[in-house]
């Protein structure tokens, strides 16, 4: 069972925003239309739909498109309205992961996703200047990832041992989501990517036990992003913890 402690305090901002907006959506910003300036496109998009999303996940494609200063500008522009998660594929020795996480915190992010499979971390609390970075461990990806899924219980237990804010489990694996909820308890946050373009219907991961669904191209590449988001939000039960 997931151990009680500081992790629940660290994840309270995401929960608070979700309850206020009645949204369980984390919007993934990696895609942008060919020929458009990515930073302008994402800023315009968030200005239009920011009231419908609890969080925003920013990945390596976005980082490579606009650089650290571009992402810092984006985060600073909307940090009061949404919870920003950096998904920079962190998977290294503890010193490297901690160093990158501190840089992510310095850019204004609220949380970061890291891979659990290295199994070489001891304790990863990241704090600086009175701020903390919430950490979410990847327990199961939305691709087949047979090797990771064969060690699901081990990865879930490892996440609990590290005292992370939550875990990431692919939305197309309801059995893994249910297992994570069963093993980690009701207070652990479960984020599920893969909704929409990867074939998972909105609401399916929530029904299996996830807290948030991560949605990207189904909204960002839609000709009507707001309408697409409204449909997804309506498919979810209102958040309440």
Automatic annotation (TrEMBL):
Substrate binds at residues 57, 142, 216-217. One of its GO terms (biological process) is 'de novo' pyrimidine nucleobase biosynthetic process. SUPFAM superfamilies: Ribulose-phoshate binding barrel. GO terms for cellular component: cytosol. One of its GO terms (molecular function) is orotidine-5'-phosphate decarboxylase activity. Pfam families: OMPdecase. Keywords: Decarboxylase, Lyase, Pyrimidine biosynthesis. It is an enzyme of class 4 (lyase). Its EC number is 4.1.1.23. Pathway: Pyrimidine metabolism; UMP biosynthesis via de novo pathway; UMP from orotate: step 2/2. Gene3D superfamilies: Aldolase class I. The active site is at residues 87, 89, 92. Residues 24-232 form the Orotidine 5'-phosphate decarboxylase domain. This is Orotidine 5'-phosphate decarboxylase. It comes from Thermofilum pendens. The lineage of its organism: Archaea, Thermoproteota, Thermoprotei, Thermofilales, Thermofilaceae.
